[in-house]
Design goal:
The protein has 129 residues and is mainly alpha-helical. The protein is built from 4 helices and 4 strands. It has one domain.
């Protein structure tokens, strides 16, 4: 198709499915690590007073379980990556656009290729809003 005599060139937005899943796996690993690290920060901040509180103990156990689940899903994806055909391709553009967090969209989108989600992250830091 042409516009004003110019030929429109379609750009292939697809990439190997394995590349997309590898970025998701790295992000899940980073989340699991952040949950673990933040548990330590919270425990240090609250101190011994929380040890006697059953609700605190339950919340800590729940956070630990969430971390283990996220790390388990990352391991599952890592294992699947070994079985994928390198010819399988996907256009993740719409999925990336659906993400609400810009940094997450960057890391999971094609701009995040070659990055590791856990590089240069201070797990004790958070943005308050």
């Amino acid at each position: 198709m042409s516009v004003n005599g110019a030929v429109a060139v379609e750009i292939d937005q697809t990439e190997p499915v394995g590349d997309v899943l590898a970025r998701i796996e790295a992000e899940l690993e980073a989340i699991a690590h952040a949950v673990d690290a933040n548990q330590a920060h919270i425990a240090a901040a609250i101190g011994a007073a929380a040890v006697a509180d059953p609700a605190y103990a339950s919340a800590v156990q729940e956070a630990d379980l969430l971390s283990q689940k996220v790390a388990g899903i990352a391991s599952f994806l890592r294992a699947i990556l070994l079985e994928l055909s390198p010819e399988w391709r996907v256009d993740a553009t719409a999925a990336v656009r659906a993400l609400k967090l810009a940094e997450l969209a960057h890391r999971l989108g094609t701009q995040g290729r070659g990055e590791h989600a856990h590089d240069d992250i201070d797990y004790g830091h958070c943005d308050l809003f």
